[in-house]
Amino acid sequence: MKRIFDPIHRFIELDTNEIALLDTAPVQRLRRLRQLGLAYLAFPAAEHSRFGHALGALAMGERILRTLRTHSASYFASDAEFAAQRRLLRASLLLHDVGHGPFSHACEAVLGLPHEKRTADILALPEIRAALERLEVDPGDVLALVVGDPRGRYPVLREIVSGPNLDADRMDYLLRDSYFTGAVGGSFDSEQLVASLRIYETGGTLALGVDIRGVVALESFVLARYLMFSTVYFHHTTRQFERILQAALRETWPDPRALDAIDEFLAWDDFRVLESFRFATSPAARAVRDRDTLYALVAEFNSESELTIFEACASELRQRYGDAVWSDSQEQLMHRLPLGLSGATPTVRVGTYAGVTSATEVSDLIARMAGSAHWRKLYVERSKVDVKAARDLCRRIGAQKGKAAHVTTKPVE
Question: Whole-prediction pTM value?
Fold first, then answer.
């Protein structure tokens, strides 16, 4: 048994076979992948790794499974079945991010292959297969949980690993990212939420849900996700450097197919990418290395009601400045349907005194947040555009349409 200290979950315990899995090269590589990619350029303390997050997700998954054993005990046919599912869950959470490349989504956009495909290749490596064999865990079951395969044998474990709402992955990264960025909006009542988790069956389908006493904690969880997207994940500085990084990576990897081989892919991490920029002369590589903001934020629009103003500003800016304008549009579902389900199926199931219902029926806040949230930003290249003039233009367009655009301004000095 080994105890590892973590700032979020305190001590995390792993047995000898789990330590052997943790010590494999693909898992140790997670130490060299930042959890938040380039967010450290906006939040200087956001240097935490996917390795720490993998351990944190395991710790959160353990807490969830213990709750389910207490309150939904009939799901586990025996102590042996519980032990087998526990080994599978913990191994899957340790491995759930091994398919990510350097700086994650920027890398994926350049190389083209999704991290789920990389995960399948990594699970086939002899080193990983041997470690899983010692744990008596089937690599196929791990893959099904990590990629959210609805055909997998363990629907409840799938939701804990990669579910749309109540997964251990999301619960840990919100708390962890909030802690390391200092963005307090990412905090939520994890103790009450985990303690309220139950397994419900409706229409022959098993899914995670919450007891009615956990609805307020669920609301705090949904709200935390929205606030973290608004303040951290789609921060304007991070978004522009992700665009710049993609340009630099295309220069670094002129043939993306060269990294299709899993050994070549695993040889790259955040450290190697940044080292390749050390003596680079291209504007994109230098900008990432030296935090040179090539773009200036002109205006941002975080409401669907502002869509027409966004489109009008983007059109006018492009007419004046052409390709020196970049519009960034991001959309996220704040509260989703369970995996593999659609139509009138509830979002998160809630057990009430009258039966099982949807979280949208017992929480006005969740009902209002059940759709998509939008973040739209307009940037211009600093070297080609008069930034003040571009911002003034968007301000005038907003005023003409009767609504003020969120135009970036400088404070009075």
Answer: 0.93
